[in-house]
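Collaboration report, partner site 2.

Our partner group contributed sequences for two proteins of shared interest, and the home lab folded both. The records are reproduced in the order in which they were received, starting with the first partner submission.
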Amino acid sequence: MTEAARIALQEVLPLPRWARLAFAARCVRRARPLLRAPAEQATVLESALARTEHAAQTAHADDELAAAAAAAYTLALDNLDGKAPTSAENEAVVVACMVAHATAFAAEAATLTDPRAAAQLVAQSADFAIHAFRMARSADTAEALAAMRRDLQALREAAARGKWDDNSPVPAGAFQGAGEPGGSR
């Protein structure tokens, strides 16, 4: 991946804590429609993603979010990374693994108070979401990255307008004008 084709740590580090988390969740939400996983796996990831979004909106990470992050990691590492899929299943398994890792990194970032460590997980989460588009051979990979960059810019502007700090929750409307996830894959 080249620098132009990813969201770098330096781009997310200046965001306040919960804005970084909202950005990671938004990147995962954009990649979520690529997932073709069994219902049980999709439920684990959706729960972790929903809890991550809730944490950003309430500026609070709880034990349930930590458990959801662990469940997403377990899914990625034990159930997806360790699977030996047939060639027909390979693409779906790899994409599910990318989305699972993106979800787990985003959820874990919520539990960290160290800005650099959390920003590193957020950047990795965005990378996994972008890579999910590539692995799915989505024609919309470039648009997905552009949409993620619009999301990042929308958060920067909202944070500046609202004078957000690391304790500021991210309101539901923070991404207004950036386009809805899932609308364009």
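Second partner submission, folded after the first:
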Amino acid sequence: MEKASLVLENGSVFRGFSFGHAGDAAGEVVFGTSMVGYPESLTDPSFEGQILVSSYPLVGNYGVLEDIAEDGLCRYYESERIHVRGLVVSEYAREYSHWSAKKSLDRWLEEQNIPGICGVDTRELTKVLRESGAMRGVICSAGSFDGEIAPDAFPTAGGENPVAEASCKEVVRYGEEGNGRRTVVLVDCGVKHNILRCLLRRGVNVVRVPWNYDFSQIDYDGLFLSNGPGDPDLCRETIKHIRRELSGDRPIFGICLGSQLLAKAAGAKTYKLKYGHRGHNQPVRRCGEARCFVTSQNHGYAVDDSTLGGEWKPFFTNMNDGTNEGIIHEHKPFFSVQFHPEAASGPTDTAFLFDRFIEGMGA
């Protein structure tokens, strides 16, 4: 096995062995706490531009299945490609076992030119990221790292807009026009395919538009704001289009980045979390109730509750750190959540929110 290293911008070096693509990569280094679901996580567009550290020690033991495209959507994956820049694990299972597996994780990463490192003390690495915060890093997979990384090797923080990379490039329609069903405009900021599957299973037509598309000329019954990567401040065009729609009464539902964009359109502020929320085990409480839910999450920014306007209020709160997990309008059918109710992969405790959105359209 070839030696490899992960070098953080604070000078920390974590050594291990290369698997997947034998190349270098740079990105923001973040950790996730999921025990399973690496095919879904790696294809989640919200990880665009990031190096993912798995805090669960064993990865790759059930291999990777061959995805099937149906009606323009992946059946199992969350997008058509891997979005992480690199993968860091403690132990990589070179022998996989699952009845549906068609290839190893190692081969899949190699096919998509994504470097991985195994043999890393990911518990210590996770502690560093929790204490110091998410930071930029470089994977050096061509031999063992020995020396210093040039400052320009680290990606520029806040430079490019990853949403532009993750979003679709043209309008895509799902469902047949004139079939009598309600129509949802979905603003694609890096949408997970299971969100589309969840909407289509509920009997609506979906018009998927690029992140900066002016959808005002489309005849629709509900507006959906998708998840996606990066800083919501980089999506000024999207925020402008959403703000215009707040004067109406058509239902609006936002997930993850979509929640932050809805909040900013309403006049609230967002901020970067120290190390974000990423995993299938994030507990949230619905505000005003004692009821809690276990949720799947993947985000690095949050809404500042104190900046919400008078007609808006928090919808859910994170039970670990008290941060905002969604907002809701007091009178109009506008709401959003910071977590993923479509949960692929992850708990389905909050899937009822899709029904709430559909019912708001009178479908």
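Feedback sent to the partner group on the second submission included the following. The mean pLDDT is 93. The longest helix spans residues 122-132.
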